């Protein structure tokens, strides 16, 4: 009965045992069975020995066997008690392991929750960390000599020196590279205002410390001839105050013989629209205003001809000179009048005809005392005929007004 009672809790405990504990239990059971079989074999041997001994000794053997039985039973009870204590220990160990596993799972969950929260905080603090790091790096940069190191290179400047441009830019050696880049627009305006030669400026930054300044200058259109000096007139009409030496003048240049700055500026704007082939042929420009045209100028050409044209009509009418030039007599100086329409005549012919007409008119006035209508008509007719003669002699198809 005691063995059955002991076997029942073993089955219940075995359900909660681990693999290692089950194997240990099986090993102990096998060991116990082996010991029991050995004990039985010893008992059988003792029984055989007892049968062989005399009756006197048989009583002593019986007593010994009883003692052995009692000791066997005691050993068996002790083994069962040890086995039950081991099972109890195993159950206690399994419960402890289960509790440890639960604690480990809870700890892992807590750690995972902590890591998730810490990442959120890092993401929230990231802009602050980046901003503070950038400020720290900038502060170190501004404290080093690298912050004020810069190289400024100029290209395209011929009439204005690099020293003048650098001085007028107001860029100081102590200025930071960053502030020079930020104030680039102001530096360009300062350089542009320093000289009338400068047409346009561009300043580009090249990492780490180089500034490339591209300069575009105005070209020289003509020279103002005043007081024996020649002053350059730029393509925008500005007059340079520094004169150019006569021996430094180009072989073919336009010499302006009047000093009205407003008319010079208008002339520069108009002449820029004229073809280069016509422009190169101009030698001098003289202001010869009439009662009707105050801005009338006389252009003396390198081929010996003269052109009368208003400054305000230069861009419109002067390009026609190229076609008229081929129809004029070579070696005979001619005048191309573009004041009202476009026609040409031999130089001096119109002055002679006008003077002869005036003399005839005066003679008629003296004889009659007043100019008659017939005389007036004759004067007008003679003027028309004389003006027509040079036109026919030049065979200029442009003798009538070109529209």
From TrEMBL:
Gene Ontology cellular component annotations, sorted alphabetically: cell division site; plasma membrane
GO biological process, one term: FtsZ-dependent cytokinesis
Biased composition annotated in UniProt, kind: Basic and acidic residues: 1-41
Subcellular location: Cell membrane; Membrane
Residue span, POTRA domain: 147-218
Membrane topology: Single-pass type II membrane protein
Extent of Polar residues compositional bias: 368-382, 388-403
Cited Pfam families: FtsQ_DivIB_C, POTRA_1
Spans through the membrane: 122-143
Region (Disordered): 1-97, 348-403
InterPro entries: Cell_div_FtsQ/DivIB_C, DivIB, FtsQ_DivIB, POTRA, POTRA_FtsQ_type
The keyword Cell division is assigned to this record: yes
Compositional bias per record (Acidic residues), positions renumbered to this chain: 42-92
Keywords for the protein's UniProt record, in alphabetical order: Cell cycle, Cell division, Cell membrane, Membrane, Transmembrane, Transmembrane helix
Family as reported in the entry's similarity comment: Belongs to the FtsQ/DivIB family. DivIB subfamily.
HAMAP family named in the record: DivIB
Alphabetized PANTHER family for the sequence: CELL DIVISION PROTEIN DIVIB, CELL DIVISION PROTEIN FTSQ
Role description: Cell division protein that may be involved in stabilizing or promoting the assembly of the division complex.
Protein name: Cell division protein DivIB
Taxonomic source organism: Streptococcus sanguinis SK49
Lineage of the organism: Bacteria, Bacillati, Bacillota, Bacilli, Lactobacillales
Gene it is expressed from: divIB
């Amino acid at each position: 009965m005691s063995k059955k009672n002991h076997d029942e809790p073993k089955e219940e405990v075995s359900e909660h045992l681990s693999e290692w504990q089950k194997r240990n239990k099986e090993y102990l059971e096998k060991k116990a069975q082996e010991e029991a079989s050995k004990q039985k074999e010893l008992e059988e041997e003792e029984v055989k020995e007892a049968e062989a001994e005399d009756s006197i000794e048989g009583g002593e053997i019986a007593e010994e066997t009883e003692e052995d039985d009692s000791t066997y039973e005691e050993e068996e009870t002790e083994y069962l008690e040890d086995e039950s204590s081991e099972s109890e220990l195993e159950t206690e160990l399994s419960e402890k392991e289960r509790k440890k596993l639960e604690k480990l799972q809870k700890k892992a969950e807590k750690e995972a929750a902590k890591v998730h929260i810490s990442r959120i905080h890092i993401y929230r603090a990231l802009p602050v960390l980046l901003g503070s790091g950038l400020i720290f790096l900038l502060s170190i940069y501004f404290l080093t000599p690298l912050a004020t190191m810069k190289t400024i290179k100029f290209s395209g400047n011929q009439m204005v020196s690099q020293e003048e441009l650098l001085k007028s830019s107001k860029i100081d050696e102590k200025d930071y590279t960053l502030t020079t880049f930020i104030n680039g627009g102001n530096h360009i305006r300062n350089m542009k205002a320093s000289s009338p030669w400068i047409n346009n400026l561009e300043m580009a930054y090249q990492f780490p410390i180089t500034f490339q300044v591209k300069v575009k200058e105005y070209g020289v259109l003509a020279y103002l001839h005043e007081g024996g000096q020649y002053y350059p007139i730029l393509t925008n009409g500005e007059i340079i105050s520094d004169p150019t030496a006569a021996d430094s003048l180009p072989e073919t240049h336009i010499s302006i013989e009047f000093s009205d700055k407003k008319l010079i500026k208008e002339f520069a704007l108009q002449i820029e629209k004229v073809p280069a082939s016509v422009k190169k042929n101009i030698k001098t420009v003289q202001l010869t205003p009439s009662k009707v045209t105050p801005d009338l100028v006389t252009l003396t050409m390198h081929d010996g001809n003269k052109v009368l044209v208003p400054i305000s009509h230069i861009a419109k009418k002067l390009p026609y000179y190229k076609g008229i030039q081929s129809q004029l007599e070579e070696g005979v100086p001619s005048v191309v009048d573009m004041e009202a329409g476009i026609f040409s005549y031999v130089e001096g012919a119109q002055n002679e005809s006008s003077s002869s007409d005036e003399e005839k008119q005066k003679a008629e006035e003296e004889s009659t005392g007043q100019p008659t209508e017939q005389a007036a008509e004759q004067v007008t007719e003679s003027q028309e005929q004389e003006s027509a003669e040079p036109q026919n002699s030049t065979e200029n198809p442009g003798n009538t007004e070109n529209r």
